[in-house]
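Person: I keep going back and forth on a fold encoding question. Show me how you would write down a chain together with its backbone fold. Please set it down just below, with no commentary around it:
Helper:
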Amino acid sequence: MQRKRVLPLAALLFCAPALAGTVPAAAAEPQAGPVPAPVPAAPLRILLTNDDGYNAPGIRLAFARLTAAGHDVTMVAPLTNQSGAGTKTSSAPSIAVRHPEPKVWAVDGSPGDSVNFGLSEVFEGRAPDLVVSGTNFGPNVAALATHSGTVGGAVAALDAGVPAIALSTGGVAAPDPVTTVNAMGPTLDFAVKLIDRLRSRARFGGPLLPQGVGLNVNHPVVGADGKGTPAGVATTFQDAQALLKADYTDAGDGTWKVGVKVDLKAPARGSDVEAVSAGKIAVSPMNADWNTGPAEFAVTAALLTGLRP
């Protein structure tokens, strides 16, 4: 799978000191698609999901913090932990859904299933202004983003024409539980600022983001207690490296023990890995269509020239 393409959001996100950061040069035009509903002047109607499950600390804090900021938040999230589910959606003939408390729905499926159910049933007839997925326990940079259920929930929203933000908390190393949870507070503080920025830049009740564009936001863990302030904000692209390496050991009985090692290589300049490694918040514009850029398409077409069935 190719990397999500970087799109021209620098002027939208980084024209004021509060969110100043590094801006990459590469950019591509967004793809046409369904037009999102106009953004009202009032606080936003937000569908909140995740991949860690509806009772995970990250989504509960996100629900509380976004609600305290004045937004109308409805949680539609997986019943159980769905980490690594990616963009999976169910093909089963039925799906179990619980409604354990007001404004909270728990779907026995993937983040994509949760978003699809939320858009079809909970928000039937009027799409939310924004889908927020997270905040995830641990980062979703480089290839982690490709397989992330947190990012997958955001992609499901983009497929439906709804603006989306994926939120993750953690450094590129293995997360420490206590400091990562502590860093979720600063992550959500930034998310509120980011959403306010998008609302303030939405012209004449227009969409929060360019058509078909979502944001993959990775907030680093800063300080010994995780409550430190990041070094800045950077508009980034998804680094090409795999980041994690599977390690298999033959148990000798027909089964293999599976381990995972962090295999961090030098990050590409301007990438999400570089930013998070430097203690900065990485904001990576993404789309959901998986198309290559014009140059890659041309090279591939040349390789296939003359091929016959």
User: Anything to note?
Assistant: The CA atoms of residues 136 and 168 lie 4 Å apart. The first strand starts at residue 21 and ends at 22. Residues 177-201 form the longest helix (25 residues).
